[in-house]
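Notes from hallway chat w/ T.B., transcribed later so I don't forget. T.B. wanted the structure written out for a chain they're using in a teaching module, and asked if we could keep both sequence and structure tokens in one place. Agreed to drop them here.
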Amino acid sequence: MPAIATSKFRVHNAEQFKEAFDETSNTIMYFFVGRNEAFPDDNSPPTPVNSTANVEFTPWRQMMGAKRVQASDVTHAIPRYDWTSGTVYDYYDDQDTNLIESDDFYVITEDYNVYKCLWNAGGGASTTKPTGTSTSKFTAADGYIWKYMYTVSTANALKFLTNDYIPVQTLASDDGSDQWDIQSAAVDGGIDVIRVTSGGSSYTDGANAIATISGDGTGATANVTVDASNVVTAVTVTSVGSGYTSANVQITGGGGSGAQAVAIIGPKGGHGANAVEELGGKYIMLNVRLDGSEANTITTANEFRQVGLIRDPYDYGTSNRGITSNYRQTFRYTVGSVSGTFSADETISDGGSNTAVVVEYDATNQYLYTLKPVPSDFANAASISGGTSNATATIVAIDTPGLQPYSGDIIYVENRVPIARAEDQIEDVKLVIQF
């Protein structure tokens, strides 16, 4: 049967995902890094394969460390459109079937102010930058009608703003920002713009041309503009009214005929009432910072090429959900009787069928860090040898990873170009998930 999944369905799913971090019985989500081994082409990482083997199992075998994602690390996001002079922007239209999916009907300025375009001057280029934080719409010198929505705070800009995405939120209470004023002033069912679809002809008495707005709301009024050719060129709203879900515009008087216009009704709640829904916040951005506060649980001695999210994993060897801030996911072997020096990224063997990839070798403390051995874990007292270095050693003690492999659910996997780490370096990793 014919059906659609609406834009609000996608936004709702994004909202549910974000709310999972705040709920009393909240989801515990971990960001992980992994895969020190090179791809066939590191400059063009392959797209992850969405199969049970490649989602449920393989990432665990390549995992190097995990860091808990906090509610403050998550935001709704929307595609970024910078205001640029000379650009023709789209405008909000309650009849536009493609508005949320791909239209650039809002902009961000260098002041980090976000504006929604209510009218684009009939398809003209925008040449006057929108400014100000008024709760009312305003008409720029180029004829564009804009509505200020909110300002991205400095903190949110530093944490979430990227070249491609803008953070967006809807406030639940007054935080002292201009956005709360915008939300509070929003008019449900208002008509901010009337679009002329036919100018008609012979309006020789333009001063007496009248626009009458009828519908299920009240209070909307508008003036008619007639040009020197006796054609209706604009119907300008003088009062937006309220409560409209449908409306008709009839132009009478003025001695002419044939002019037609369409009322554009604002979104439910009014422009500015819910920035997340109005601007299509179906994207969720997570920002996780690897800044050295992980207590050496995430190695700085090797690269990683894969990141992702695990939901509700268990502590190693238990059925208890992990709650610690950071976890080392490599196996750490204390080794003795060492001959030679193990090399990062080489494969080591216990002399049987079990192998593991080296992540790091600490010769001073004789610690050997590896990814999860396959098909089975190394046994204590096992003799191991490096496939490339030819180094040999005997396992004296085994320190297992923090999280139980294959527990919880891996819900997101992304392959990236190699990210090299250093002790004095901070990695600000942003994940964007589209619903």
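Follow-up for T.B.: The two ends are 23 Å apart (CA to CA). Might be a good example for the class.
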